[in-house]
Amino acid sequence: MPYKYDPYNNRYVWYEEGTTPPTFDRSGEEQIPGWTDAYTDTFPNQPASKDLAKTKVIDMDDPNYNNSSSSSTSSSQNADQRNAYETLKRIFEDYGLGSLSSKILDYVQQGYGPDTISLMLQDTPEYKTRFAGNESRKKNNLGVLSPAEYLSLEKTYRQVLESAGMPKGFYDSNDDFTKWIGDDVSPAEINDRVQLASRAVNNSDSAYLDSLREYGLGNGDLVAAMLDRDRALPLLQKTVREAEIGAEARRQGLQLSKDRAGYFESIGVTADQAANAYQSIGANLGTLSNLGSIYGEEYGQADIEDELLGRSGAASQKRAQLQGKETGSFSGQSAVGQKTLGGKSRGQF
Q1: Which of 116, 145, 260, 321 lies most in the core, judged by the most C-beta atoms within 10 Å?
Q2: How far apart are CA 268 and CA 262, in angstroms?
Q3: Is there a single domain that holds both residue 114 and residue 56?
Q4: Rounded distance between C-alpha atoms, residue 87 and residue 35, angstroms
Q5: DSSP class of residue 332?
Q6: Within a domain: residue 83?
């Protein structure tokens, strides 16, 4: 004899075999939210039984209901199903997958346990889209992250970006992190990249930004380029340091080629060292170039750079010889030593 459970009124309704199963009054409180809605959505055109005389109601709360063992078992099963549904529903809502609640309900109704349902849900398109980084990790022969590990990694990425002052809406959605997770990019590497990007975004110095553009990082995609793992971090760091050196030359109205900046960066010249050097170069270059012309020697920006930034002994000797000629000609003092070296004695830059 068939029965149908009425989740609104916590009872089983018997109906005669071969007749249409009854529908239920929605005025009561549903025991498992969404249960009857899901059933109705599945069978939207199901008519109510017209032969109510053939319908027998079994009220599980009726004290005269004799089958206490059956009633107790059914109530226990119903409670277990209700708890499983609510627990899984909330877990997957935390994953951003509230849309799977109807599937959870369906699997619960079919009698699957919570662990089995969790595994089955991982095969849904919604789950695979939400945790798309894991699909990439599989292709890259990397271990798949658990949902907890995946969410924790996303949270860490977000914290790194926020702490560096990245603009809201920039690299802060789950989709933005999919490629990083799929490529196994560590938060430490992202932090290094973000620090470079932050320096670029927050530095309004036109000399620095112009140098970055000249050395290969365009203004429009500057930050994105630094956060793109396809562009190797060491090369980006090198470009940024080169741009900082080039910016110091620009501040003095001078130009510095990328090759020259790259050479100085490779021997360890810092932005502060470049700033000090180019202040002296800016002050001395005109005078020393004029002296070179007077005494028939070619002397220019590269010579002073080689001495101050490249620590070239030959360049230092060349300047000393030029200043010696000036001193001998004017029996006195070198104008470079007095005026253009900022109070430093000859031989010091």
Answers
A1: 260
A2: 10
A3: no
A4: 15
A5: S
A6: yes
Q: Assess whether 55 and 89 both reside in one domain.
A: no
Q: What is the mean pLDDT of the chain?
A: 76
For tokens 């741009």, name the residue.
243
Model pLDDT for residues 5-45, shown as the tens digit of each residue: 666 665 666 667 777 777 766 554 544 555 455 545 544 44
> Are 320 and 278 contained in the same domain?
yes
For the question of whether the overall pTM of this predicted structure is more than 0.90, the answer is no
The amino acid present at 37, given as its one-letter code, is D
| Amino acid identity, position 115 | D
Question: Residue 104 is part of which domain span?
Answer: 78-130
How many structural domains comprise the chain? Answer: 3
Give the three-class secondary structure for 4: strand
Cβ-based burial of 95 (10 A; exposed 0-12, middle 13-18, buried ≥19): middle
- Per-residue b or e along 290-312, where b marks 16 or more CB atoms closer than 10 Å to that residue's CB: ebbeeeeeebebebbbbbbbbee
Rounded distance, CA 108 to CA 104, Å? 6
Domain membership flag for residue 215: no
Q: Verify that 4 and 54 share a domain, yes or no.
A: yes
With a cut of 80, say whether residue 349 has pLDDT above it. Answer: no
